[in-house]
Automatic annotation (TrEMBL):
Record-given protein name: Response regulator
SUPFAM superfamilies hit by this protein: CheY-like (SSF52172)
Entry-annotated residues carrying 4-aspartylphosphate: 52
Domain called Response regulatory: residue spans: 3-119
Domain of life per record: Bacteria
Keywords associated with the record: Phosphoprotein
Length: 126
């Protein structure tokens, strides 16, 4: 299947997303900060990036903008997955280069539908 990079600093959220994605057969890598995700994405070239927003230092919005503008990673779709559920946050995330914006907690079926849609493949309906 696909390689998905999860960028999050919550072990609970990482575990839930990793479990859902691995059930669909995806390979998963993890980065615990937006700033580190820039190098990880360049090196591993994932098929999709799942980006949290709230981090110490560089925010997920800033990380998304940098990834979307970097020629080495601009082709990788980014899904912001955040606890910030205001419409202004969603609009801002999409303006930074995200393809999708989901609000935590994200259910496995919803996550897999969005990833499958970005990959152009059907989700199994987890």
């Amino acid at each position: 299947m696909a390689h998905v990079l999860i960028v999050d600093d919550s072990p609970t959220d990482i575990h839930a997303m990793r479990s859902a994605l691995e059930e669909e057969g995806h390979q998963v890598s993890v980065s615990d900060s937006a700033s580190d995700s820039l190098d990880v994405a360049r090196e591993t070239q994932p098929d999709v990036i799942l980006m949290d927003v709230v981090f110490q230092g560089m925010s997920g919005f800033q990380g998304t903008r940098k990834l979307a503008r970097d020629p080495a990673t601009a082709h990788i779709p980014i899904v912001i997955i955040s606890g910030k559920d205001q419409e202004t946050d969603r609009i801002w995330g999409l303006r930074q280069g995200a393809s999708e914006y989901l609000v935590k907690p994200v259910h496995a079926a919803q996550l897999n539908r969005v990833v499958a849609g970005l990959l152009g493949t059907p989700a199994s309906g987890a």
